[in-house]
Amino acid sequence: MEHNKRRIQLIVFAIFVLPITLYLVFKSISKPQFQPVPHSFSILDNGDTLYHKLPPFRFTDQNGKPFTREDMLGNISLMSFISPADTLLTKILISNLRRVHDNIVEGAHIRLVSVHTDSTSLAGFAAELGTDPQKWLFVHGPYQEVYRIGWEAFRLPDFEGKAPPAKPFTAQSVVLIDKAGEVRKVYAGTDLGSVRTITDDLRSLIVMEYPEELRK
């Protein structure tokens, strides 16, 4: 009697419970797993909330071509600021960004943009790195413009107390910007641990911003 009861329980489990369990397991596997990437903001002294957005600007890329805000819209961007004063930190920052660059697959809607205030060695600097110009652009502009973006728009600690005409600043921050030009997150670019976090957030933002890519 007990044996028959156990058989009935196994049959019921196989007919009803097991298919539902398998369905939920396969559904969770097939569904992209990601953590939403929130918008970045600051609380001003007067209590207002400032959502960080990419303002209009006009820079020049390593090939001498104009580069503006519109050139960044439509893609996910990682913007960094290269300091001519901090050689060691700049090398660490570029090394970490190179790791991110090498993880970006062909055709992804992701581009790195590094901003410099010195145009003299920009083309040679980019060529020496041997990076893909479709994935990583080096641009330059006057310090006033760089400061306006870095501090007035993004509130990066790199530029705190560095109002023009002061030029020395600490190159550490990397800014994640979505396809609409809104800042999602700021990282310590000189921290090796940030490379993994940036890579994970890029994957999450791709899922959020380009869901149609997952259906291809």
List the strand order in the largest sheet: 4-3-7-6-5-8-9
The CATH architecture name of the largest domain reads 3-Layer(aba) Sandwich
Content-based structural category: alpha+beta
Task: Note the run of SSEs as H and E.
Answer: HEEEEEHEHEHEEH
Note poorly predicted spans: 16-34
Proportion of strand residues: 15-25%
CATH fold name of the largest domain:
Glutaredoxin
Look at the structure and give the mean pLDDT.
76
Number of strands: 9
What name goes with the CATH superfamily of the largest domain?
Glutaredoxin
What Rg is obtained from the alpha carbons, in whole angstroms? 23 Å
Shape: globular
Descriptive account of the structure:
α2 (87-103) crosses α5 (193-209). The strands form 2 sheets. A 7-stranded mixed beta sheet has the order 4-3-7-6-5-8-9, sandwiched between helices. With 216 residues, it is α+β, with helices and mostly antiparallel strands. The chain has 2 domains: 1-31; 41-215, Glutaredoxin (3-Layer(aba) Sandwich), CATH 3.40.30. The protein contains 5 helices and 9 strands. 38% of the residues lie in helices and 20% in strands. It is globular and about 45 Å long.
Short description:
With 216 residues, the chain is an alpha+beta fold.
